[in-house]
Specification:
single chain, about 180 residues, five-stranded antiparallel beta sheet
Length: about 180
Protein backbone atom coordinates (compact mmCIF):
# COMPACT_ATOMS: atom_id res chain seq x y z
CA UNK A 1 0.00 0.00 0.00
CA UNK A 2 1.21 3.45 -0.89
CA UNK A 3 2.29 5.77 1.93
CA UNK A 4 -0.13 8.58 2.76
CA UNK A 5 1.18 11.77 4.35
CA UNK A 6 -1.31 13.59 6.52
CA UNK A 7 -1.32 17.28 5.66
CA UNK A 8 -0.89 19.80 8.43
CA UNK A 9 -3.75 21.89 9.75
CA UNK A 10 -3.04 25.60 10.17
CA UNK A 11 -2.80 26.83 13.73
CA UNK A 12 -5.29 29.37 15.02
CA UNK A 13 -3.32 31.30 17.63
CA UNK A 14 -2.56 34.80 16.41
CA UNK A 15 -0.38 37.06 18.53
CA UNK A 16 0.55 40.72 18.14
CA UNK A 17 4.19 39.63 18.33
CA UNK A 18 4.01 37.76 15.00
CA UNK A 19 6.58 39.25 12.59
CA UNK A 20 4.14 39.72 9.70
CA UNK A 21 6.91 40.63 7.25
CA UNK A 22 8.07 36.98 7.50
CA UNK A 23 4.77 35.56 6.23
CA UNK A 24 3.00 35.07 2.90
CA UNK A 25 -0.77 35.30 2.83
CA UNK A 26 -2.93 32.83 0.86
CA UNK A 27 -6.71 32.44 0.57
CA UNK A 28 -8.37 29.94 2.89
CA UNK A 29 -10.88 28.19 0.68
CA UNK A 30 -14.22 26.96 2.00
CA UNK A 31 -14.56 23.33 0.99
CA UNK A 32 -12.88 19.99 1.75
CA UNK A 33 -9.14 19.74 2.34
CA UNK A 34 -7.73 17.17 -0.10
CA UNK A 35 -4.50 15.53 -1.19
CA UNK A 36 -3.79 14.18 -4.66
CA UNK A 37 -1.02 11.66 -5.26
CA UNK A 38 1.08 11.33 -8.41
CA UNK A 39 -1.35 8.74 -9.80
CA UNK A 40 -4.17 11.30 -9.66
CA UNK A 41 -5.94 9.66 -6.71
CA UNK A 42 -7.72 12.12 -4.46
CA UNK A 43 -8.12 11.76 -0.69
CA UNK A 44 -9.58 13.75 2.17
CA UNK A 45 -7.13 14.94 4.81
CA UNK A 46 -8.06 11.83 6.82
CA UNK A 47 -7.09 9.49 3.94
CA UNK A 48 -10.58 8.69 2.68
CA UNK A 49 -10.68 8.29 -1.11
CA UNK A 50 -12.78 10.72 -3.15
CA UNK A 51 -14.02 9.44 -6.50
CA UNK A 52 -13.07 12.28 -8.81
CA UNK A 53 -10.92 12.59 -11.90
CA UNK A 54 -7.89 14.85 -11.78
CA UNK A 55 -5.75 15.92 -14.70
CA UNK A 56 -2.63 17.42 -13.19
CA UNK A 57 0.58 16.70 -15.10
CA UNK A 58 2.20 13.53 -13.78
CA UNK A 59 5.80 13.89 -12.67
CA UNK A 60 8.50 11.23 -12.32
CA UNK A 61 9.00 11.89 -8.60
CA UNK A 62 6.83 10.98 -5.62
CA UNK A 63 4.59 13.84 -4.49
CA UNK A 64 1.30 14.73 -2.89
CA UNK A 65 -0.57 17.86 -3.97
CA UNK A 66 -2.22 19.71 -1.10
CA UNK A 67 -5.42 21.61 -1.79
CA UNK A 68 -9.13 22.13 -1.36
CA UNK A 69 -12.11 20.97 -3.39
CA UNK A 70 -14.84 23.60 -3.54
CA UNK A 71 -18.36 23.83 -4.92
CA UNK A 72 -18.66 26.17 -7.89
CA UNK A 73 -22.12 27.25 -6.76
CA UNK A 74 -21.44 28.14 -3.14
CA UNK A 75 -18.22 27.83 -1.22
CA UNK A 76 -19.61 25.98 1.77
CA UNK A 77 -18.33 22.67 3.12
CA UNK A 78 -21.70 20.92 3.12
CA UNK A 79 -22.21 21.71 -0.60
CA UNK A 80 -19.08 19.82 -1.73
CA UNK A 81 -20.56 16.31 -1.75
CA UNK A 82 -23.40 17.48 -4.06
CA UNK A 83 -20.92 19.41 -6.22
CA UNK A 84 -18.86 16.23 -6.70
CA UNK A 85 -21.97 14.21 -7.63
CA UNK A 86 -22.96 16.88 -10.17
CA UNK A 87 -19.40 17.43 -11.45
CA UNK A 88 -19.71 21.07 -10.38
CA UNK A 89 -16.52 21.54 -8.37
CA UNK A 90 -13.09 23.04 -8.66
CA UNK A 91 -9.80 21.95 -7.14
CA UNK A 92 -7.60 24.65 -5.65
CA UNK A 93 -4.03 23.51 -5.04
CA UNK A 94 -2.00 25.60 -2.59
CA UNK A 95 1.03 23.44 -1.75
CA UNK A 96 2.95 20.25 -2.54
CA UNK A 97 4.77 17.70 -0.41
CA UNK A 98 7.67 15.73 -1.89
CA UNK A 99 8.62 12.94 0.56
CA UNK A 100 12.14 12.62 -0.84
CA UNK A 101 12.71 16.35 -0.24
CA UNK A 102 11.05 17.25 3.07
CA UNK A 103 13.47 20.16 3.54
CA UNK A 104 11.98 22.17 0.65
CA UNK A 105 10.92 25.65 1.74
CA UNK A 106 7.53 27.16 1.01
CA UNK A 107 9.03 29.31 -1.74
CA UNK A 108 10.72 26.28 -3.36
CA UNK A 109 7.49 24.27 -3.22
CA UNK A 110 5.49 27.09 -4.80
CA UNK A 111 8.11 27.33 -7.56
CA UNK A 112 7.79 23.57 -8.22
CA UNK A 113 4.01 23.95 -8.49
CA UNK A 114 4.52 26.73 -11.01
CA UNK A 115 7.21 25.02 -13.10
CA UNK A 116 6.08 21.37 -12.99
CA UNK A 117 2.29 21.71 -12.69
CA UNK A 118 1.58 25.15 -14.15
CA UNK A 119 -0.14 26.11 -10.87
CA UNK A 120 0.43 29.67 -9.71
CA UNK A 121 -0.61 30.05 -6.08
CA UNK A 122 -1.69 33.60 -5.31
CA UNK A 123 0.25 34.98 -2.35
CA UNK A 124 0.13 38.42 -0.84
CA UNK A 125 2.03 40.11 1.93
CA UNK A 126 1.41 42.65 4.64
CA UNK A 127 3.44 44.28 7.37
CA UNK A 128 0.59 45.37 9.63
CA UNK A 129 -2.40 44.02 11.47
CA UNK A 130 -4.52 46.53 9.58
CA UNK A 131 -3.27 44.86 6.40
CA UNK A 132 -4.26 41.45 7.78
CA UNK A 133 -7.75 42.81 8.46
CA UNK A 134 -7.96 44.25 4.93
CA UNK A 135 -6.92 40.92 3.36
CA UNK A 136 -9.37 39.04 5.59
CA UNK A 137 -12.18 41.41 4.59
CA UNK A 138 -11.31 40.96 0.91
CA UNK A 139 -11.27 37.16 1.32
CA UNK A 140 -14.65 37.16 3.06
CA UNK A 141 -16.13 39.47 0.42
CA UNK A 142 -15.02 36.94 -2.22
CA UNK A 143 -16.73 34.09 -0.36
CA UNK A 144 -13.53 32.58 1.03
CA UNK A 145 -13.35 31.17 4.55
CA UNK A 146 -10.52 33.52 5.47
CA UNK A 147 -6.76 33.70 4.97
CA UNK A 148 -3.74 31.62 5.94
CA UNK A 149 -0.43 33.18 6.89
CA UNK A 150 2.47 30.89 5.91
CA UNK A 151 5.93 31.57 7.25
CA UNK A 152 8.51 32.15 4.54
CA UNK A 153 11.17 29.45 4.51
CA UNK A 154 8.93 26.96 6.34
CA UNK A 155 8.88 23.28 5.45
CA UNK A 156 5.78 21.12 4.90
CA UNK A 157 5.65 18.94 8.00
CA UNK A 158 3.84 15.70 7.37
CA UNK A 159 2.02 14.27 10.35
CA UNK A 160 1.00 10.73 11.18
CA UNK A 161 -2.48 11.80 12.29
CA UNK A 162 -5.08 14.11 10.79
CA UNK A 163 -4.96 16.52 13.71
CA UNK A 164 -1.31 17.54 13.22
CA UNK A 165 -1.15 21.32 13.75
CA UNK A 166 1.35 23.31 11.69
CA UNK A 167 2.98 26.05 13.74
CA UNK A 168 4.19 28.01 10.71
CA UNK A 169 0.72 28.23 9.13
CA UNK A 170 -1.83 30.47 10.85
CA UNK A 171 -5.44 30.60 9.72
CA UNK A 172 -7.40 33.79 10.23
CA UNK A 173 -11.19 33.53 9.90
CA UNK A 174 -14.16 35.70 10.67
CA UNK A 175 -15.08 35.77 14.33
CA UNK A 176 -18.71 34.83 14.75
Amino acid sequence: MKMFYYPPKPGTLFFKSIPLNQYMVQWKWRGWRICIDQDGNCYTRTNRPIDITTNFPKQNYDYQLDGEIISLDTQVEHKVRKAIRENNYKIKIFDIFIPSKPELTLEERLQILKEDFNIEVECQSTNSFEGVNELLTEALDLGREGIVLKKQGSTWRAGNVASHIERDWIKVKELI
